Amino acid sequence: MIKKIKMRTLLIGGCITLFFLVLIIRIFFIQVVNGDTWQAEASSLIDREQTIKASRGTIMDRNGNVLATDAPAYIVSVNPKLINKLGIEDVVTTELSKILGKKESEMRTLVTAKKPNSDEFYEQREVRSEGFKIGPELNAKVEALRNELQETYKAKNAIVTTQVSKRYYPEENLASHLLGYMNLEGKAVNGLEVSYDDKLTGTDGYLHYQKDAKGVQLPNSKENYQPPQNGHNLKLTIDDTIQFYIQEAMKEAVAKYNPLSMTVIAADPNTMEILGMANWPDFNPNTYWNASDQRNFVNHAVQSIYEPGSTFKIVTLAGAVEEKLFDPNATFESKRIVIGGYPISDNGHAYGRISYLEGVKRSSNVAFVNLGYSMLGGDRLRKYIDNFGFGVKTGIDLPNESASPIKPLVYKADIAAAAYGHGLIQVTPIQQVAAISAIANGGKLLEPHLVKEIINPNDGTSEVIKPKEVRQVISAESSKLVSSYLEQVVADQIIGTGRNAYIEGYRVAGKTGTARKVINGQYSKTKDVVSFIGFAPVNNPKIAVLVVIDQPEGANIGGGAAAAPVFKKIVSQTLQYMGVPKDTAKTKSKTDVPVVQAKAPDLTGKAAKQARTTLLNSGIAYVTLGQGENVIRQYPAAGASMNPGQRVYLLTEESSKMKVPDLTGESLRDAMEVLSLMKVGVTVKGEGYVVEQKEQVAGEQRTVQLTLQSAKAAVTGIEDEAPESSGTPTSSENDDASDSEQADQEKETQTQTTDSSQTENGDAASDSQSTDTSLP
Questions:
Q1: Which of 666, 597, 596 is nearest to 635 (CA)?
Q2: pLDDT tens-digit profile of 70-119?
Q3: Cβ–Cβ under 8 Å, residues 66 and 234
Q4: Class in CATH terms, 240-283+299-455+464-584
Q5: Which fold has domain 598-642+647-716?
Q6: pLDDT at 745
Q7: What number of other Cβ atoms are within 10 A of residue 645's Cβ?
Q8: What does the angle CA 597 – CA 602 – CA 603 come to, to the nearest 5 degrees?
Q9: Active-site residue 774, yes or no?
Q10: What is the Cα gyration radius of the chain?
Q11: Which of 112, 530, 640, 649 is buried most deeply by CB count within 10 Å?
């Protein structure tokens, strides 16, 4: 008996010992051999990492007005499983379709969606695209429907909304080709969104901590926090007011001529900062999927290649002037000629023996063939074509820029055709603007650009983009002479082909163009690309503009008739907006009507967006102060008289952190009123207009130091102490005088003139052969 007890004891003890041995081995393997694995598993149960999304950089115009920014958005989803369980598919389909504007048939497909090869309904289906990243206003309607479903059917989660962020373009179609857009997947498409994607895109941050099973942070848990690095902000060179002027003028032209497409570019010729750039047709980047055609997304300004026609004659003229070959008083025979077996005429006209200056005014093909083919010759003509930047990309900071390499000018017909912008000459609109700017600014070819400043919001630093000179194309003296000749193309109201671009009180230089389109390798007799290019004021250029209209409808619609009036409207509005004074000495007469000063509208209490629309429609520039939704105060006050070009400042919030606007060019009174609105202190140095500002912070108080300059210096760039002119006319003034005398003689002696509504002579293409394609 005792022996049996001992055996049992030994057996039980052995089993216990074996159990503990196995347990120890198991613990050894868990804690030592596989310790790292199980440690990671344990950490995964208590560790939590939360991603902190970085904001994409904001895009602003040169005055700080927001053109593209991140905004709250919501994704709408439906729960087919719950909806069909409660039998409310009809209610959800009907009501949600009404709110989101989605077809009921498509919504019902989502609401009744089942998993593949199964009778089981999905638990979540996103409503694309109508319910994807909707705005707060639309989301409020969806939330109201959710609450209604909860009250009636206890089914609030039949519809689910998830908050995210989306790219928002507050000005909608304004500058859409420049900005591009972000697609529904958050990928940049076209425009500056693409070319500066690496700058605009931020780096997400994160928060790492430990939690219990209920998700509550554990006491004394370790935190690891990495703040997000938001994307850089872009301040552009464009001015949204000038952009608005451009697009409004284009709308009128499109309504009148119904073209295939239209392009306008405005630039500061002294820096090649693009002040505005627009194409028609365009699109709304907020709802880009509604665009009727892929052609809506083409930025013709940098992508389309075409034969420019007579606007290209500025290159031939500049080359002839630079080589001292152009004598405005020398004469030639305006008649049909044959070069290399191809006939060339002045659009079917023969004016007999006329001066080369008259040939420029009339846009005579024969005159420019003489200048380019006979005087300059193929090699020198090609040198100026290359030096002005044609045949290569300009380097503008936009994606997908095109450039058509210009083939060697070997044959006589090719050289002759190139002299007046046809044949082998293929250009883009942006190349043309760079070329006319070189003539306006003293002969310097500059690289066009759209971004003025790149701002890092994380540390407050910024990178200012400075003008980049490519090369000196012609001398400053030649630049003045060419400008004076192009001015007479506009100023001569009898024979000047650009007379419809004349602006009372401003000296305008320009050139018309009407180029036959190449269809199936042959010049069309009915389809044209018409254009006008120019700048103003001639004596102190502030803006250069190109207008291109592809295939306007109507008979004999040339660049002078269709494009020049668009140029005139844009430039006249812009110069007034810029505050550029008119030359009243030349235009004042007894019949002049006094300028009526505009009154500041009452915008206080209105929604900021409504206020901005009101000002834009009135042609009044504005600056928004703050990020609020409504206007709290304004300057000038409602009803106050406003000077030409004066801005309205809209205060939308009370905050000590609001950014001080750029006050350059403002009078001391206006600058102090604006800073008073913002409750910012002011110190002043100098008199007149603001030329520099510097912000200083001392504790809670902000102070802005304003440096002022006299009115004369602010407008003309000439200091008051500079010596007055001795009265000796400059070369440009001498040219103006001689041309005025010649114009008087023409009026007395000319017995036959073209009708003022007739298309400009010489702008039609000759029969010279072309092997390249026209504007797409």
A1: 666
A2: 988 999 999 999 999 999 999 999 999 999 999 999 999 999 999 998 88
A3: no
A4: alpha beta
A5: Trypsin Inhibitor V; Chain A (3.30.10)
A6: 36
A7: 17
A8: 125
A9: no
A10: 35
A11: 530
